[in-house]
Amino acid sequence: MSRKRRKQKAVALEVVSGGATVEDVVREEMRGSELPKSEVLAGPKRRTFTAAYKQRILDEADSCTEPGQVGALLRREGLYSSHLSSWRQAIKRGEREALSAKRGPKERTVSEREHKRLVRENEKLKRELATARLVIDAQKKFAEVLGVALAPPPEGT
After folding, report:
1. 116 lies in which domain range?
2. Residue 153 has what pLDDT?
């Protein structure tokens, strides 16, 4: 670009901006406007798929015959190939209901809950017994120091 042309552009910029710098012009334009809202969500949300949706996608993927059709299907639905793999493995294992299985802890049977409750109660009673034995031993030693004779334990204990 020639020196004359550069000088013309600089003069045109000064006329448009009134002698202000480019930063001043941008700042002035942004002054009244709000910043654009971010399209990024605050936190990730796990997607859930119904069993019918999973089955439909698997059927559609199995019907693809041309190269690239499965990739187009995955892009259109926003899925990954690992989704198809894991859904197919669940069907192979005979877990039809696994396609709609919910995440999280499994439901416990009544006997499992009762067993856990009894184990907790047993542990609590063992701790209490150990504490009681310590107290009894301390009482025996204290009685020995004072020279007090303790009553013999009742028969059968």
Report:
1. 110-150
2. 73
The sign of the CA dihedral 144, 146, 147, 151 is: negative
Residues 56 and 94 in one domain: yes
Output the pLDDT for position 9.
58
**Co-location of 145 and 126 in the same domain:** yes
Token duo for residue 50:
């119904």
Query: Per-10-residue mean pLDDT for the chain, 157 residues long?
Result: 61 54 62 59 78 90 91 93 90 69 70 91 97 93 85 72
Residues with Cβ within 8 Å of 83's Cβ and at least 6 positions away in sequence, in order, are: 49, 57, 74
- 45 part of a folded domain: no
Q: CB of 46 within 8 A of CB of 73?
A: no
In a domain, 73, yes or no: yes
Helix (H, G, I), strand (E, B) or coil at 1: coil
Rounded CA separation 34/32 (Å): 7
Asked if residue 142 belongs to a domain, the reply is yes
Task: Please indicate, yes or no, whether residues 57 and 96 belong to a single structural domain of this protein.
Answer: yes
Cβ atoms within 10 Å, residue 39:
5
